[in-house]
Amino acid sequence: MNIQTIIIVGAGQAGASAVLELRAQQYTGQIILIGEESHLPYERPPLSKEAILNPDQCKLEILSADKLAELEVEFIRGQAVLSIDAAQHQLHLQDGRCLQYDKLLLATGGSPRRLPAFDALGKQVYTLRNLEDAHALISVLQPDRRIVLIGGGVIGLELASSARAKGCQVTLLEQGSRLMGRSTPEILADFLYTQHRHHGVDIRLNSQILDCQPQADQILIQLDQAETLLADAVIYGIGIQPNTALAVAAGLKVDAFGAVLVNADVQSSDPDIYAAGDIASQLRDDGVYRRVETWENANLQAAIFARHVMQVAHPKANPAWFWTDQLGVNFQFAGDMGAEEWYVRGEINPATPNPIFILFGIRDRQIVAAITVNAAKEMRHLKKMIQSQQRFATDIHLDLSRELRKLL
């Protein structure tokens, strides 16, 4: 097939990365990038941190107007795609335009899962998903304001860190029995709990919200056991819902959670339509479809798309990797967080001003996961250990006198 026009719907991390990779692979045809937001493509990880704490110094932009022009990309922003006609290879835009494509990449990301009872309360309730959300929180997070965060995942904990840095009184409500329950082992969840408590975050695990009501300029939250909280503002982050309405309407196959099913080449059930990033549930090497919400996964799937279109061997997936910065501490995660056993290299002490340690995740005596705490430079060595399924030995891997790079 002679590919003349590639359209990318979604101007976030995956969409922007696909543009760069297509041109890097010498694709010379037309690229149309469509973003529903009015902004140039930007990164989202800083939204809960630098974009709130240092908005004037925070650099979010992935592709500038000059770079888009240099790459000869037609960028349509502030426009929603209303429908896909897969049979005719056409997109219908909000402004009435009809665009023709040869190959189409859907990189539409996700939207916050909603709490309707809180949404109904109005302006004192916030979520965080885009740049406007981050800008709104700058004025919300002010000294001594009582902030209630709902959700003890990465976003909730990063916002707790930012709110404390701005002098807020912070209470965090988590329905589960531990923090970051879906993405971290219990040993690190306990460390995070103690560290945040040490820095003044009031964390309530196993928390059940029974009701919420406006009270003057505040919000009254009723918890179980007749406890109530008063909040100047509520921010919730309880996960995302993949933005797959377009894909579903176009007849693409989706999983039980609404994510687009894609093969190893990120092709959907329509071979000319691909999906990448938060909306894509990809067939993995173990024969299982998984959706991964990370910066790295968005980049990787974008590269797979571009290279498949150009008939170039695509990159092999590294162990799943993500990071978070909280209370001045950098955490990096790689591999399978469901590992059966965890071992500590170094010392876990949440009260230490600058804690440094590594966790090894072990299954059947092989290294299947690793977590670094303020030890980012070691992550590349740990990824290689995971990839090679290196056998774990406590007397070797936990010996601080041995450099990890020399154990490869």
From TrEMBL:
<dbReference type="InterPro" id="IPR036188">
    <property type="entry name" value="FAD/NAD-bd_sf"/>
</dbReference>
<feature type="domain" description="Reductase C-terminal">
    <location>
        <begin position="321"/>
        <end position="408"/>
    </location>
</feature>
<dbReference type="InterPro" id="IPR016156">
    <property type="entry name" value="FAD/NAD-linked_Rdtase_dimer_sf"/>
</dbReference>
<keyword id="KW-0560">Oxidoreductase</keyword>
<feature type="domain" description="FAD/NAD(P)-binding">
    <location>
        <begin position="5"/>
        <end position="302"/>
    </location>
</feature>
<dbReference type="InterPro" id="IPR050446">
    <property type="entry name" value="FAD-oxidoreductase/Apoptosis"/>
</dbReference>
<dbReference type="Pfam" id="PF14759">
    <property type="entry name" value="Reductase_C"/>
</dbReference>
<dbReference type="InterPro" id="IPR023753">
    <property type="entry name" value="FAD/NAD-binding_dom"/>
</dbReference>
<dbReference type="GO" id="GO:0016651">
    <property type="term" value="F:oxidoreductase activity, acting on NAD(P)H"/>
</dbReference>
<keyword id="KW-0223">Dioxygenase</keyword>
<dbReference type="InterPro" id="IPR053382">
    <property type="entry name" value="Ring-hydroxylating_dioxygenase"/>
</dbReference>
<keyword id="KW-0285">Flavoprotein</keyword>
<dbReference type="GO" id="GO:0051213">
    <property type="term" value="F:dioxygenase activity"/>
</dbReference>
<protein>
    <submittedName>
        <fullName>Phenylpropionate dioxygenase ferredoxin reductase subunit</fullName>
    </submittedName>
</protein>
<dbReference type="Pfam" id="PF07992">
    <property type="entry name" value="Pyr_redox_2"/>
</dbReference>
<dbReference type="GO" id="GO:0005737">
    <property type="term" value="C:cytoplasm"/>
</dbReference>
<dbReference type="InterPro" id="IPR028202">
    <property type="entry name" value="Reductase_C"/>
</dbReference>
<keyword id="KW-0274">FAD</keyword>
